[in-house]
Amino acid sequence: MTDTLPPLLEGVRILDLSAVISGPLATGLMADQGAEVWKVESLAGGDMTRALGAQYRGLTAMFATVNRNKKSIALDLKDPRGRDALLALAAQCDVFVENFRPGAAARLGLDYEAIKAVRPEVIYLSISGFGPEGPYTKRRVYDPVIQAVSGLAEAQGGAEPSLMRTLVCDKVTALTAAQALSAALFARAQGKGGRRLSLSMLDAALYFNWSDLFWNHTFLSPEAEAHPELADTFGISRTADGHLCAIVGAGVDFSDFTTEGAMAALDEYDIPCAPALPRAAVPDDPQVQASESLVPHEHPVAGPMRQPRPPVRDGAPLRLAPAPLLGADTEAVLAEAGLSAEAIAALRAAGVAR
Q1: Rounded to a whole number, what is the largest CA-CA distance in the chain?
Q2: Which of 120, 136, 178, 215 is the most exposed place for a label (fewest CB within 10 A)?
Q3: What one-character DSSP code corresponds to residue 188?
Q4: Which residues participate in catalysis according to the annotation?
Q5: Shared-domain flag, residues 208 and 241
């Protein structure tokens, strides 16, 4: 069947001032679904994920995956001329996203009221670690901090808390943000106007984890009985040549079977199971290949790479434009926002734009 439908978010324009994962993954998902995302970065190095983790020819894997299908504009927002240029961009956008520490956007003159003044029906999303109120609000926050304070680390290791080896709180915040922005766009399309949205990583983590990790902390009646943790019923079992996960109770011994033999026996009784694959083997798994869950991609600088397909198959053509180099689209996007060639050249000459 040929893809014929338009992208779900075609016609939506997002001005994204966020960095790292919680904001960029949210806008990245929306870019995959057709939104035009203008990513505004600092002049000095841009988004910190440009320098974080595995990289090749100056491009990091993390940045390339989260920021594909976007355009990069590099501006000095502390300079009034950079701020004015940013407001010109904001006037052309439907959505504004930032994940500064609480109060930083206001100090830059880019809070909700400032953006609303140039785009009255804007949907403005602020993402923070702990929200705008409370004793922790001014703290610098990264994913492991939220894993710790939300109880997630304790749930992994009990008396010896242990961190998940993935940025789970950043990512669930991003998915929550994308859903909230889509809901707000739907409401605006119904004539309900724009609005300000506020999202904290702590709230997103608690909402995400509560139904199972906190089921013994939900009922407040003293008569309510505790129940064994759901995770305690799961486990990874060793086989003769590897490991697998089977939903038959924790600690089952399959050491006399190969993984393939154990899977065949479990499948015969319709027992949920799968091999516990090392990451290097995941791309070659037959289900991953059959589903085309990973897609090849050619970056103009880094060359051939592979990335995950957008998880929702919506009938629209696959979007996989390469992640932009820092400031690659500054001139084109500023011109689209109405700045003259002379004004753009002046910003560059003054070191306000790149």
Answers
A1: 75
A2: 120
A3: I
A4: 170
A5: no
